[in-house]
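Subject: two folds for Thursday's group meeting

Dear M.,

Sorry for the delay on this. The cluster queue was jammed most of the week, so I only got both jobs back this morning. I'm pasting them in the order they finished. Each block is the input sequence followed by the predicted structure tokens. Could you check whether the formatting survives your parser before we put anything on slides? The first protein is the one we discussed after the seminar.
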Amino acid sequence: MSLPIHVTFTLASWIVKGLADGSLERVGGVIRDVGSKQVVTWLRDITGQKSQIIPTGGSSNNLLNVMFSGANLVASGVNTAVTGKGLADVNERLGGVEQVGLGNIAVSGVNLIGTVANAAIAGKGFADVNGRLNGIENQLGEIAQNIELNQGILQLTTATSILNLGVSVMSFAVIAQRLKELEKRLQESQELLTKMNRKIDLSFYANFRAAIELAVNAFTMSKTENRRSSALQAINRFLEAEHIYTEYADIEIEQQSQIADEYLLTLSLAYLAEARCYLELEEHNTALRRFQEGAKVVRSRIYQYVDLLLTSNPAAYLQPQLQGQIDLRRLTRIYQWIDPAFDENAVFEMQRENLFKIVQDPKTWVDSLPPAILTRIEVKGGWFGPSQDDLKQEAYKRLPQVLEIIESMIETNRRFEAYQTEVEAISQLGISFHEWLKLTPSTESQPEAAELMYITPLEPLNLLTGAL
């Protein structure tokens, strides 16, 4: 069946241009037209479901793993007199290529020198090797530039999220892995919570994991009626998890605690797992409805949490000592998630008076900080505890990390909401979810360094959710 979409491993030049001039924008896992909100491309992770939550700002310079499998740099019989100098040259060049650390270029079974037995021609052999390495280095440089260009335009290098780009790559196995990471982070928080006379109940994570295992088993069953029956049992457990983690998130937000984000992310996974069950059953309309309902529940609470972390005076994030770490552009992007009409000038005007307040009266700001950012028991001080200045300096030190948490929560929320557009597209294009899963370029081989696949409709799609 011929579908009205184009699937590639390379971002089309007109999309790159649109992202560069601002007529297009990335929102979670979609690229849309800024004016009409029409979806022009979906992004899909193809690097394998990443097993860990990558820290914000993590470099992608490790994209390539230059492997020379089966290469024999010193072929048998090469004259040792020439081999010494030749190998030194080759090793030096190989070291340079390896340090680039940019690609997954596999040179399988290559014999860089061949079976050169005659010392008289070994010198030329090494010259040829060095020439070929020149070419490899040039190709690596070009690949690196293209990857960095695309990632820069897409702003993916700093976009950390617990969710992948594309609902199709958020399998039950990935959901289970992310759930395990969140549970581990909560366990690590227990020491601090104990000092605050607080305990957390992790028993419901075991129930959530059991529900995922039930769903996995359901969709490996051969009989349709058994598969559906088990899937509905798993869905009931996911519904229970949604109620539990909504309540937990509300409690932690009210207490302004440091673990509210963990429960919000867990809540997102619960809704995702439920919707994924409906997609596996090809119940697209129900999956879309659950995504929409989940988006309302999750977004409203993430908004409360973001507002909490912006503190009573958001101008604190623009303090002089944070220059080079936080700029007005980053703060503006957060406010644009709250209200897309905001621009940098509007945000600056909002904070103009706040900038003077925090300089004139930093004590009021410090005293108002929520436990989600700072508690007195975390700060070392003198005999009488931490001074006001100790608290202020520790708070300023933490703000860059807090801003990363805000950005991560927003990025996760946008990816979750963008999943709706995929479900709508599946229905609009008249294909099954399992056909959508199998989409791949038909005439293009996958580059080793590729991290994304781009699904572009031949005509931009008008979707009810608009891409949010």
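Second protein, same layout:
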Amino acid sequence: MWRLACLCATSDGVPRRSLTVALLVGTVLNLINQGDAILAMVPVSWLKVALTYCVPYAVCTYGAVSSRLVLLAPGPRTASGGTGGVGRT
């Protein structure tokens, strides 16, 4: 299962899409969270800046991978492509 998840995370444009989302969302979040520090030219926590970009990347990648794993899993499908309301844990 992990091997398939890693394959999904690195294929078909997922990294590029996740990076685009991370750059857009991360920039907005950094401006919200540290905008005053950036504009006032005071020291900025670079760890927080990096993590603010990593979180949307991880969330976007997780969403793409979980969607693809559902589509690849055997079992009944509904018209929307889901598993008929059966949740996976």
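Two things I noticed about the second structure. The CA atoms of residues 5 and 66 lie 8 Å apart. Residues 19-60 form one domain.

Cheers,
T.
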